[in-house]
Backbone:
């Protein structure tokens, strides 16, 4: 319940999670909230620090979220 509340109010942050962990956490919680893909994408991007948000914008706004998170994770692993 607390995770769901944090997602709804936008208080989930990447912190020391990997991009992949963040994506999976938000995906899991968003299923409970019945979020659509557009809402899920917004929640994921809201959880990113500015540096990662800029990278996400550079990679492509039109990529599906699963592909975007995968590309960001690949960058993170470098």
Residues:
């Amino acid at each position: 319940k607390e995770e769901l509340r944090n997602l709804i109010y936008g208080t989930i942050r990447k912190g020391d999670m990997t991009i992949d962990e963040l994506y999976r956490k938000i995906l899991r919680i968003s299923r409970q909230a019945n979020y659509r893909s557009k809402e899920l994408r917004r929640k994921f991007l809201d959880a990113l620090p500015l540096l990662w948000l800029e990278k996400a914008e550079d990679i492509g706004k039109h990529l599906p979220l699963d592909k975007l998170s995968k590309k960001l994770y690949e960058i993170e692993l470098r």
